[in-house]
Amino acid sequence: MSAIELNNVDISYGDSKVVHGVNLDIAEGESFALVGESGSGKSTILRAIAGLAPDWTGGISVLGRPRTHGIERRVARQVQMVFQDPYGSLHPRKTIDAALSEPLAINGVGNRGERVAAMLMAVGLDQRFRFRFPHQLSGGQRQRVAIARALMLEPKVLLLDEPTSALDVSVQAEILNLLKRLRREQGLTYLLVTHNLPVVSFLCDRLAVMRHGRIVEVADVALLKQGKLVEAYSQELLAATEGIVLVGTPS
Ligand SMILES: Nc1ncnc2c1ncn2[C@@H]1O[C@H](COP(=O)(O)OP(=O)(O)OP(=O)(O)O)[C@@H](O)[C@H]1O
Description:
It comes from Devosia psychrophila. This protein is an alpha/beta fold. It is about 35% helix and about 25% strand. The protein has ten helices and ten strands. It has helices spanning about 40-50, 75-80, 85-90, 95-105, 110-120, 140-150, 170-185, 195-205, 220-225, 230-240, and strands spanning about 1-15, 15-25, 30-35, 55-60, 65, 80, 155-160, 190-195, 205-210, 215-220. The strands form two sheets. A six-stranded mixed beta sheet has the order 6-7-8-3-9-10, sandwiched between helices. A four-stranded antiparallel beta sheet has the order 2-1-4-5, with helices on one face. Helix 4 (about 95-105) packs across helix 5 and helix 6 packs parallel to helix 7. Adenosine-5'-triphosphate binds near residues 18, 38, 44 and 193.
């Protein structure tokens, strides 16, 4: 079954259409990247899938069922978003325990204490962080909390919007390794937005290259690794990132 399917999707902000005729079919368990220049509509696609950019036409299906416009409870449980800036996405006056318990409380899920403790362990955070506040954690630790929060309701799909680009290079590798392990352990599907092609090579199976709100190419990551993307614009992107390597990630 497809985890995410977009069929001829246009997305607008008011009168301004920013995504044009996008088709995507991402399989369950796949890790798929959206790459391309700034402003090409990558984050807008994630937002529409999550229900945060409701002004779209065409078809969006999540785990085989068409979604409606706006926030949908079923989709919110199955599809969670992780943002670039973990500081911005965590409430500064809530402890880590409160941040992780909240989605469980809202959805009436029991055993909250045990679930929070288990999730801290799953994302590699010591239990002593549990009653601390976000400002008492490093950037990488905060992103671990943001990922933990996204996973509390056991979603099937994570929408990852530049999940490592706000972090120091050495910490980026730790978070990428964590995301790789969690996907394997929990059978997750990833749809990842990034500017960083080495991140795509490390974490993804396929990628779509976007420009001016349109997909110009969809390719297997094997072709990216061999430098064999077909379209001229994709080759430009490759050339622009040549020489950039991730520190500390196994190739
Ligand atoms: N809330 C908004 N209201 C109006 N226009 C917006 C809004 N958010 C984004 N846009 C516009 O939509 C277009 C696509 O933006 P989007 O953030 O999806 O691009 P992106 O490819 O994710 O860029 P980046 O890589 O810089 O995050 C841009 O022209 C942007 O200015």
